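Worked example 2:
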Amino acid sequence: MSGPRTAWSTPADIVAGVQRLWDSGALLATRLDNAPLFPYELRLRQPGVAVMGEQFEQVRSWGAMLKAGSRAEQGHGYDLTWRDLNHRQLGRNSIPFAAVIDTEAEALRMIGRARDARQFDTLAAHTLASFPQLHAWVRIHPRKLLYRRSIGCVTAISRIGATSIPTGSQSLSACVRPCQRRVPC
């Protein structure tokens, strides 16, 4: 299966799409503000109508592979949204159009980050209880709370005192960077 087949989405691509949500900090930022992110839809790279006519069996195998990785088959993960295509020679066929992750819990399970998300909740709660003025910074940089240096920096900031913490996210970042260099991990 060479050629266009390699450009079509795979279950690994769907997981990579969820991983990008984690890497960007969007998954954690929504936990902080209880903002709705789910259900989350990932559009799939799919074969065109012309390719369906040329490689019909590969297209069917591709759809079956995506279905095998779905929640319908695995009991967890993503659901597929199907789209009907009319082909003048093949007739009407359905192909996967998008993967839908219904809940944050499913997304975290797909990428193995549920424990990290719980740790973030604890760290964010403790940090924001002591320093509510850090809320905007934590929303912009949620993953930094999960790194040991940043935790040390928050501890060092607490020693300095809440009144000396800058309120803007830019000035706070300037405070955090030198702090990360001084606080031992």
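The two ends are 49 Å apart (CA to CA). Strands lie at 40-43, 79-87, 91-101.
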